[in-house]
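ok trying again, last paste got cut off:
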Amino acid sequence: MVILKNKIIQSTILLIIFSVIAKALSFFVRIYLARTLSADAMNIYSLASPTLVFIITIAQMGIPAALSKVIAQSKSSASALLTSIILSLVNNIIVITLFMLLIPFLAQIILKDAQIIPVMKAMLPMIPMVTLSGLLKGYLQGKQEHVSACASQMFEEIFRIIYLLISFTNAPVMTPVRMAEIAMLSVFVGECGSSLYMFIFCMIKRTAAFPVNELILKLNRASFDEILRVSIPMTSSRLIGSLTFFLEPMLMVLSVSNASSIVATYGQLNGYVLPILTMPSFITVTLANTLLPSFTYETSHGNRKRGMKIFNVIFWICLLIGFSCSAISFFFTDQCLNLFYHNTLGSAYLKSLAWPFAFYALQPVLSSMLHAFGQSKKAMIDTLSGSVIRLLIITFLTPVLNEAALPLALTASMLITTFMHAIRVSFYLWKEPSSA
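nice, full thing came through this time. structure:
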């Protein structure tokens, strides 16, 4: 029993260490880009970034997480792997084709900036590479190689840093569009490095080797249904969040006659406050990605008690991280803002939202448990409920509360989704083992 706990804790500590290193490298990339890109280049890059996030969500379609779950609960990974490859290939062809056709429309009509076209075209090679990286990571997690899957994030950032340093050093003078294009291409190079590391690891470690000979023989209709049953609701949840962020500022501006104070609040919350409040997510999301295949693997192999121990360790670690970060944000509000931004804009909002957002650290873990229990649709319903409440508060309370409506909407949305997840997980977690 003690050995089991020690193994779980050791693996969790390694995951946290690698996540911290990867996050530190990611911060270095952000700082380097902020100091290297000109103001115009940063504006172009920032303008294209939301499109990148949306395209990645569509390109992956939740298949990597579904692959990790299916592999973890299956004796053979061949069918699930080939099914995921076929689905990803077909989806990528469709996404790339449509995106190529829509680039001029998105740049000139929607974003009203034709010079962003080369930057958007730089996203095209990224689509298949992000998909490949996601599949490899999902495969490793399904095979319980969580530390290696997490370590791939470090290689992603290292390759990206090397590419940026070489590109900007060799060509110190370039146009803003070219600078933004290089910044966007660095994401592609990072995914190449991550995929290369994971592929070499799979080839070297025989226990995680690809079952090439079994692939075609194991393909069947049930595999497609199994993958899609998990991936579609997960994709829907992410799309709901993206759509909410898209509609939010539009509804705010339309709800008041003088939008200047509302826009200022929106900028402070999204630019300064939320990045600090959600900072623990880089650890909690990593642990949640580990929890989904681990819990599924243990329960499907009759080791429900071990699955419960893994859940309990990860749950309490995430809760501790959430409350620790909230305490720091509450008691050292100005110091945190000065440390990251060299100003104290949004100080009042950070202090007031610090404690409620402690529970945000539990949301990825609870969501992963719902997917592990095969309740992806209910997880999507919880996300949709929180998003609807958020938009309703903004629409109907902004005319009354003005800028105070936005932090209220953020808090209510987050808490509703989190506690709905918690209620559902509690119900399924404490059912009889045979029914779980």
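cool. The mean pLDDT is 80. The chain is about 80% helix and 0% strand.
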